[in-house]
Specification:
Elements: E1 2-7, E2 16-21, E3 24-30, E4 39-40, E5 45-48, E6 50-55, E7 57-58, E8 61-62, H1 71-83, E9 86-94, H2 98-112, E10 122-123, E11 126-129, H3 151-158, E12 165-170, H4 180-186, E13 190-193, H5 200-209, E14 213-214, H6 230-237, E15 242-245, H7 254-263, E16 270-272, E17 285-289, E18 292-297, E19 300-302, E20 308-311, H8 315-324, H9 330-337, H10 339-345, E21 358-364, E22 367-372
Parallel strand pairs: 1-4, 6-9, 9-10, 9-11, 11-12, 12-13, 13-14, 14-15, 15-16
Antiparallel strand pairs: 1-2, 2-3, 5-21, 7-8, 17-18, 18-19, 19-20, 21-22
Helix pairs in contact: 5-6, 8-9
Length: 374
């Protein structure tokens, strides 16, 4: 058995002692400062690893381009993300042809059946970002593959892999039958609103039907306006809706990050995502992206016409940025990448009986630092 003492845990008032047996959390108890253990954290924070609910690829491989020859590369990506502090993630398949969506789903389904390896981030399922998006807010999504939002089209895209899809991003204003969101919820797929022109009333209706997330808040949706709050305004005031947020400083200005976090009590209803593209883990440069190319500079990826298409920064950089910009405390920063995405997905947080994959967080030279606890 291993014992970690004097750790700060989210949701606990006092320092805690955590006992670990066979890789699982055996107990969590108040620490006695003089108690002996295998590792004394001396008041540093301890959390589970991160959960990234929107990541588009890694190490040069885009998830919409998967083939059966990429099983080894998928394993490499899982190993890389583990090294970046991520415990679990949703490979995100952006808008492409139905055939390619099915091919990627088939490969991921095959991969998760393979024997589990140590020190790898776990694939929780898939996030489909499209193809049911508003043309006027398509962003970098290829317009030729956008589809009308009908129940038949949704069933076509899901094919035989509805069990694998955990989140689907769609524009609710595209539907007229009021059947899609209830259907998706009936098969336990989380509906996230995004790439949308939805008004506040249209968003409110979608939330009442069961939609419970917003994809990369502020981006690819109407701006917040004092007379037209739009999709995002309705989401912020709804206590049952979680908003994903990219905290790279380019997708959303730090002032607006501060605003939405303050409006959400700094963690309630907000979680961070990387929205990282396939060059994450590689150097800056020009890389292929579907039948186009993207240029990566300082972690920001753009199409040749200047359209912002994503980042190549790992999830934890967002938490470190928020702390560096004096927007969040250490505890709030940690919550946004560990606890909040788990709550949004209905996953267990740090508790007895679950794997003890721990991250140690601490401040050094006014920067938020982290390392895995071995």
């Amino acid at each position: 058995m291993k014992v970690i003492t004097n750790a700060r845990l989210i949701g606990y008032k006092n320092l805690q002692t955590i006992s670990i047996e066979r890789g699982l959390i055996k107990s969590i108890e108040d620490s006695i400062l003089s108690s002996k253990g295998d590792l004394d954290l001396q008041g540093d924070w301890l959390s589970l690893g991160g959960v990234d609910l929107q990541i588009n690829g890694g190490l040069g491989l885009a998830f919409p381009d998967l083939t059966m020859d990429d099983l080894g590369k998928l394993d490499d990506i899982c190993a890389y993300l583990w090294q970046q502090g991520v415990d679990q993630f949703l490979p995100t398949i952006v808008t492409t042809s139905v055939e390619k969506i099915h091919q990627s789903l088939k490969v991921i389904n095959e991969f998760i059946q393979l024997p589990k390896k140590l020190d790898r981030a776990e694939i929780l399922g898939v996030h489909l970002e499209g193809p049911f998006l508003n043309y006027d807010k398509k962003g970098a999504h290829p317009e030729q593959y956008l589809l009308p939002l009908t129940l038949d089209n949704v069933k076509l895209v899901l094919g035989d892999y509805s069990h694998l899809v955990k989140i689907i991003t769609l524009a609710p204003e595209l539907e007229e039958s009021d059947t899609v969101i209830p259907y998706l919820r009936s098969i336990e797929i989380i509906v996230s609103l995004g790439h949308s022109q939805a008004t506040a009333s249209q968003a409110k209706k979608a939330f009442s039907q069961g939609a419970s997330m917003v994809t990369h808040a502020f981006n690819a949706m109407p701006n917040l306006h004092h007379r037209h709050p739009g999709l995002l305004g309705e989401a912020i005031i709804n206590p049952h809706v979680y908003c994903g947020l990219i905290a790279d400083g380019n997708h959303v200005d730090p002032t607006m990050l501060n605003l939405i976090l303050k409006a959400s009590n700094y963690h309630e209803g907000i979680f961070l995502v990387s929205d990282a593209l396939s060059p994450i883990g590689l150097n800056d440069g020009v890389y292929p992206w579907d039948d186009r190319s993207i240029e990566v500079r300082n972690g920001t990826a753009k199409l040749p016409d200047g359209t912002l298409s994503g980042t190549t920064l790992p999830l934890f950089v967002g938490a470190q940025n928020l702390f560096k910009w004096n927007i969040t405390t250490i505890e709030q920063s940690i919550e946004l990448v560990t606890t909040a995405p788990r709550k949004a997905m209905g996953l267990p947080c740090l508790q007895v009986g679950y794997p003890a994959n721990f991250i140690r967080w601490y401040e050094e030279d006014k920067q938020l630092q982290w390392k895995r606890v071995s």
